[in-house]
Amino acid sequence: MRLPSLAVIAAMAFRRRFTDVIPTFETLAGMSFELFRKKYGMDEYLSKEAELLRSILQRNLTNYVVALSSSAVEEPSRSVLLEYK
């Protein structure tokens, strides 16, 4: 059984909408993020993740909780997050 993430709990507690970057990325890429990184490399994965993050933030500026992967603290996602702080 998979337990809810802290992001899911926060979204429920604060009555916010929720999205998780990893499943969204996998749906759009048509493969797991692990396979994508193996096939295209880490730099391409980070670039695509940042594009997805920017798209999510542009559409959902308020009342939204976004669960991120640990690579969100790396460039270029880090810069995208700083644009929206």
Largest sheet: 2 strands, parallel
Beta content comes to 5-15%
Number of strands: 2
User: Residue ranges: pLDDT <50 for 5 or more in a row?
Assistant: none
- What is the correct CATH architecture? 3-Layer(aba) Sandwich
The SSE string, one letter per element, is HEHHHEH
Radius of gyration, CA atoms, in whole angstroms: 13 Å
Report helical residue fraction: 55-70%
Number of helices: 5
**Alpha-beta content class:** mainly alpha
Distance between the termini: 34 Å
Number of structural domains: 1
What sort of overall outline do the alpha carbons produce when their principal axes are compared? globular
State the name of the first-level CATH class.
Alpha Beta
Describe this structure in words.
59% of the residues lie in helices and 9% in strands. It is mainly α and 85 residues long. The protein has a single domain, classed as Rossmann fold. Helix 3 (33-40) packs across helix 4. The mean pLDDT is 91.
Short description:
With 85 residues, the protein is mainly alpha-helical. It contains 5 helices and 2 strands; from the N terminus they run αβαααβα.
Helices, strands, pairings?
Elements (H helix, E strand, L loop, with lengths): L5 H8 L3 E4 H9 L3 H8 L1 H18 L4 E4 L9 H7 L2
Parallel strand pairs: 1-2
Helix pairs in contact: 3-4, 4-5
